[in-house]
Amino acid sequence: MLPTFTLHYARLPARFHERFDPVPVASPALVAFNRPLAEELGFDLDAYDEALATEVFSGNRVPDGAEPLAMAYAGHQFGNFVPRLGDGRAVLLGEVTDRRGRLRDIQLKGGGRTPFSRGGDGRAPLGPVLREYLVSEAMHAMGIPTTRALAAVTTGERVIRRIPEPGAILTRVAASHIRVGTFQYFAGRGDIEGLRELADHVIARHYPELADSEHLNRLEGERYLALIEAIQARQATLIARWMGVGFIHGVMNTDNMSIAGETIDFGPCAFMEAYHPRTVFSSIDEGGRYAYGNQPGIGQWNLARLAETLLPLIDEDQERAVAKATEVLETYPARFETEKLAVMRAKLGLAREEEDDGELIESLLEAMQAGRADFTLTFRQLSDVAASAESEPALFDLFERTEAIQAWLGRWRERLAREAAAPDEIVRRMCAANPKYIPRNHRVQEALTAADDGDFGPFETLREVLSRPFDEQPGREEYALPAAPSEQVFRTFCGT
Ligand code: AMP
Ligand code: MG
After folding, report:
1. With contact defined as beta carbons under 8 Å apart, do 137 and 126 qualify?
2. Which of 36, 181, 364, 396 makes a 20 to 30 Å CA pair with 171?
3. Which helix (H) or strand (E) holds 23?
């Protein structure tokens, strides 16, 4: 049933990781298994064996060919550098080659205390495991690059947080688990050779086009500069996609920024309802460092930390290296704006590019802010308005004050008239760019609370609803609605 494991990361030098077998758990039960993903990863589901799956996804049995390990990394947490973090509760089993020939990491999160655990117990509570399962799979269904959830097991053990909670393990799948913090780990130790090996590993695995370029092979420093630029491009795209669905990551520390450009770490993440750029949910983000509107700038800050680590590889003359890296970093704001414009144009049904589009988008956001309008529903409702003016009252109902949105609608209509596409084509495009169903915080919370009491029904229903975010799902409309005042979630917790 299991695919063949390969050991690319495990074969990197010993100081990249600590060999570590997951700590067995008392009585594992498989509570979620992602069959389409398993299929994609090369699992033989005709030979599906639930007992084996439960053993493997709980860490009670190490699959043949795997050499589990905890990865070493550092990171800036809320701006403070921590030279040694590492996988304190995650264990990488190895990689598999998926049906499209891509290497994918398979990691158990919550697999027990590792050499990097410090004061932690190495375990995960059920709630955060299911939150990551739901949200990462929802992101995937919305077409946003993300780590995936292959399985969730409960361990039959309790983990002590504020109160005792059921323990669980998530099987996470990623293009890789290499982070900005992985580079910082080697830079922090002054380990230039380690840095070079890591960078070359990343190029071979995630950016092979940089290894094939003759020009870059002649100029080694240029290759590492090009690597910064390539990682920056993926981050700009990714963060623009987050902004387009109102996603607030919540803990954009450098150890939670993937080098492959996937969304990773769903600890305190949440989706914005009423639009406001300063929206924050995470209980530990007291200064609002990772607020919705700060995410693009934090992306650049993290990329600057990445660039710093690579300076010794870019030019022997460090002043020149800084100048070259700075030149690349300075292209980020424009690149991000281009990506964001592309995302927002698509949301408004605009295929042509016009000079004033940025301003049109900004004034819609201002109208939403003034009217405290739900971000997701406003855009989805606009697709109905594009189909028929009869839908306008339902749009206005989303706004506490409607003057601004009424005026804006006229401008948008004029702009739409200059599109070449037929109206029903515009509506179709808008429905494919604006999800109706997102993981609303109160729905996620409701599913996790029920699961803690042993009822996985709400989790299953939500998972199914979120697997088709752009489709109309008759009978499921309530899942599209924002929280009622009594249901509102104001705070999310890391749950570590
Ligand atoms: P995170 O906030 O999930 O990005 O984790 C930050 C660091 O804390 C990483 O090094 C984690 O491995 C570590 N960590 C988080 N939770 C635990 C835990 N329960 N036990 C041990 N280490 C943990
Ligand atoms: Mg993390």
Report:
1. no
2. 181
3. none
**Mean pLDDT to the nearest integer, 218-235:** 94
Amino acid at the residue 356 = D
Which of 49, 64, 121, 255 is the catalytic position?
255
Mark whether 255 is an active-site residue.
yes
Interstrand relation of 69-71 and 80-82 (parallel, antiparallel or unpaired): unpaired
Q: Of 413, 440, 425, 429, whose CA–CA distance to 470 is shortest?
A: 429
Residue with tokens 């870059």: 216
Confidence at residue 495, expressed as pLDDT on a 0 to 100 scale: 66
C-alpha–C-alpha distance, residues 439 and 464, integer Å: 11
Report whether pLDDT(217) > 80. no
Q: What is the pLDDT of residues 440-481, one digit of tens each?
A: 999 999 999 999 999 999 999 999 999 999 999 999 999 999
Residues present in the chain in total: 496
| Residue ranges lining ligand 1, Cβ < 6 Å | 85-89, 116-117, 120-123, 251, 255-256, 265, 267, 494, 496
Q: Which atom of ligand 1 is nearest to the CA of 73?
A: 10
Is there a contact between 43 and 53 (Cβ–Cβ < 8 Å)? no
The residue whose CA has the least distance to atom 10 of ligand 1 is 85
